[in-house]
Amino acid sequence: xxxMTESFVQKAxxxxxxxxxxxxxxxxxxxxxxxxxxxxSCRKPTRPxxxxxxxxxxxxxxALLTAALNLLVIISISHFKQxxxxxxxxxxxxxxxxxxxxxxxxxxxxxxxGCWFLGDLxxxxxxxxxxxIASASVGTMVLVSVDRYVAICHxxxxxxxxxxxxxxxxxxxxxx
Length: 176
Description:
- It contains 6 helices and no strands.
- By secondary structure, the chain is mostly helical.
- Helix 4 runs antiparallel to helix 6.
């Protein structure tokens, strides 16, 4: 019986070696994100160099433009007192959330290569922040639409219903 068990163990070890050598042979021809882990599920996409550089430049330009122009809106509304109206406070909230969207795009640009190199904690943090910022942006757009609805459909009640204090409370509680 022990001879039979020994033979089975040897065959299993040989099968494992053959399988490992097949996996290694398959992985040698591909470009992996983490080759030391022997994980073939994380392969880098193969794109032409020109296409990759064009995507990097285009997305970097869009992210930079998004962040810079929203920062300009934030500074303008914050600096000038005459722009402190309920509608402009909603625009300010939207500009802040879109500014952060522009900053988060830089992390998205890193994913062009198909690999996330910043670890599990940063991946979780990135996903959480992306969810919160996108939700804040959508929530602010909903408040802007409610503000415009009241301004158009009930213009005589607008100034009494939509005050700066109410907008501040709604933005802080409902959006952020």
